[in-house]
Amino acid sequence: MASTATKQHYDVVIVGGAVNGSATAYFLASNPDFTGSVLVVERDWTYAQSATALSSSSIRVQFSNPINIQISRFGAQFIRDFPELMAVNGDRPDLAFKENGYLFLADQKGFDVLKRLHQTQLDNGADVTLLDTEALIRRFPWVNPDSLAGGTYGEKDEGWFDNYGIMNGFRKKARSLGVEYVENEVVQVLREGDVITGVRLGDGQLIGCGQLVNTAGTRGRQVARLAGLDIPVEARRRSLFVFDCHTPLPGTVPLTIDPTGVFFRPEGHLYLGGTYPRHDPEVDFSDFDVMHDEFEEEVWPVLAERVPAFEAIKVVNSWAGHYDFCVLDHNAIVGPHDQVRNFLFCNGFSGHGLQQAPAIGRGLSELIIYGGYRTLDLSALSYQRVIENRPFLEDSVI
């Protein structure tokens, strides 16, 4: 049942209450320079089909662009500090950060790219080790090195964590700081010329606003269109598979990415894996069918070849989630529209939304409070590049 807002006007209305919406709300409410009101409108308080809930819940610093590296370095530290930052009435949510790192494997062509990226990562403070095949086998003896020239391994700030925990932590803390949440849906965005004046909710409520933040995930394009705007964002399906292995891998097991794009990581005493599918069409918002053939045809053959122990594995669980996929360049679109300045985008994360939420939420709060970025300069992710058809390319996309 839809819930009702307590006021008719808010300084900031955030459309979408999962991790990026709640992170933005938290950073606004926790900043003493902000004295305004915030309403978060979330259509489904179970969050069952949100990208946050259905993701592989991981974070990495092994990117090619300095800003993406810096975003993740801040995010990793934020995750470590989460219990203190999100404490409410003695409850200190721990995200159980498993800092096992990412292991990127590469053939000779890919290894040349990894070496180039490695220097950029070092220059931006990331702790990443470059491994030739001998060093790779010494450290991770369960890897079959055939066709490999080496890899890179993140020693710090990489791993996986509690996805529901980070969202609920932000949400609970934001509410404790005065942010209001309603379970409802934005069905109309009210615009007068180049100014957003408010929204209409599914039950007819009219809510005025000073700023509108679009954190609606895969529905972000739909929300933008309600304002007469557009972004190159589509819903793309990603199937994830949990499998058991007869012979567990010894030692530290990172989130490991094969040159084919197939990846896996530990999931308790089991393993979680998937791939960037060869066939990757836009899907309907309601299409969460698991592509079981993807495991049999694309994932398992690669796993069995790269990790001999994985020749004998059994899938015990699976699910499908959605990427809010930025068709332009696989990077998020963050910040105001060039003409409708009080409409702020936070869309198109293409699988990076969970790990980037702390820095993006902080950045959006700075735009709202100060009119510009105060910490990390996120302007490379601006909507301007969409207008100019100028991709912000990232060489390290999974």
Automatic annotation (TrEMBL):
Transmembrane segments: none annotated. This is FAD-binding oxidoreductase. Gene3D superfamilies: D-Amino Acid Oxidase, subunit A, domain 2, FAD/NAD(P)-binding domain. PANTHER family: FAD-DEPENDENT OXIDOREDUCTASE DOMAIN-CONTAINING PROTEIN 1, SARCOSINE DEHYDROGENASE-RELATED. InterPro entries: FAD-dep_OxRdtase (IPR006076), FAD/NAD-bd_sf (IPR036188). SUPFAM superfamilies: FAD/NAD(P)-binding domain (SSF51905). Residues 11-367 form the FAD dependent oxidoreductase domain. It comes from the Bacteria. Keywords: Oxidoreductase.
